Amino acid sequence: MRLFLTGSLFPLIAVLALSCHNSEPANVKAAMADSAHYTTIAWLDSLSRNYGTIIEGDKLNVTFHFRNIGTTPLVIGHVQPSCGCTIAEQPQGAIAPGKDGQIRATFNSEGHAGVNHKTLFVTANTRGVQNYSLQFVVQVEKKSS
Questions:
Q1: Cα separation of 74 and 126, whole Å?
Q2: For the residues 53-79, what does the mean pLDDT come to?
Q3: What angle do CA 90, 93, 94 make, to 5 degrees?
């Protein structure tokens, strides 16, 4: 009986574990895979910015604006910050042709005194390039005790 349970449950457990690990919605997967409907993105801001100096413990909010200049809906498939001190938000739905969207992020400077170089890795259903790096730099001054 033990062999039966081990043998039959293992594939089921493996499938469930993999399906729980991949949280990307089916419509996003489909848009990213359908190269016939890729579109074009125009970044309305610089892809690299310097935010000057903040005090340790402050939270820095950054926003990168873009426009869908293609003829099909733009899907931001994934936004991944380079570290755990930055939380990113991405558009939840498709951006219609001619419409604008934004990617927001919040950097928590607590424990990060010094110069900080942060990157948001963005994947979109765009022609040619599908991966973008949005970067920002901020100097964090150690808070006084």
A1: 7
A2: 97
A3: 105
Q: Which two tokens stand for residue 126?
A: 């765009």
Residue identified by tokens 């390039």 is: 129
Task: Kindly report, residue by residue over 11-47, the tens digit of the pLDDT.
Answer: 433 333 333 334 556 777 887 887 888 999 999 999 9
Q: Which two tokens stand for residue 62?
A: 């950054």
| For residues 61-76, average pLDDT | 97
Beta carbons of 68 and 76 less than 8 angstroms apart:
no
| Beta carbons within 10 angstroms of residue 118's beta carbon | 20
Q: What single letter denotes the amino acid at residue 122?
A: V
Can you spell out the DSSP letters for 98-126?
Answer: T-EEEEEEEEE-TT--EEEEEEEEEEESB
Residue with tokens 């293992």: 10
